[in-house]
Amino acid sequence: MDIDTHNHFWKYNPSEYDWIDGSMSLLKRNYLPEEFSNVLTNAKIGGCIAVQARQSYAETDWLLKLSDEFNIIKGVVGWVDVCSVNLHEFLEQKHQHHKLKGFRHVLQGEEDDFMLHPDFIRGIKILSEHDYCYEILVYENQLKSVRKLLDKLPEMRLVIDHIAKPNIKAKPHRDWIQNIKAVSLHKHVYCKLSGMVTEADWANWTPEIIFPFIEHTITCFGENRVMYGSDWPVCLVAAKYNEVKNLLEQYLAIHFKSSRDKIFGSNAKEFYRLIDC
Fold this sequence. Notes:
CATH topology: TIM Barrel
């Protein structure tokens, strides 16, 4: 079964989704599992990982509720205040939700030193103790701080979202090339081949522009530690769903044909410990 490891759901309102500006007006509506089920069926994708889009406990509870109602949702990456003194108690309360796989904070919206604060590091370690994964959402210029963070964490399940959001409007920058390589040396860290079209020129990107970023990521992390993600519906500002999927399919067919099923399926099943796929 193919798995889309990165998508979002929301009931749109301007106050909770204020990051959706005028250039992304098509995102100013509801995006829910009923619609995404049809998208996945059309693309021959068997399931997805629903990732938080709001930084609230209500978001986690809502995504878990959706996962109970819709079988396409194979796992949930929610939000939690990892700096909370009550983190242990919260995680114990959620233990019965087998589809809750991990957590994410929008680190790209924080100062670099946020992720290096002792309380944040303590919280990530607690997530590891409870066997949850953690998703690292950063811009490419935050990767130096990510490297420092990784040196302070145990060998737990960690994944870099959106290949750390490099500037795909230009050729791969030397700093991104070097930092992604350094991050990949931590053998317990995975990387999502996701969010790339939205870091490119929305109206003028081509596969050939994005291929060097895919190539470097797979070369660094290897075929066993990269995973397909669409970043639906955010991707729609730059491409239709099948265009996003076919971008990676096209690259793999040329360069990593034998790795296709790992990158579209089995790597995700292993990382998220999916039990019904």
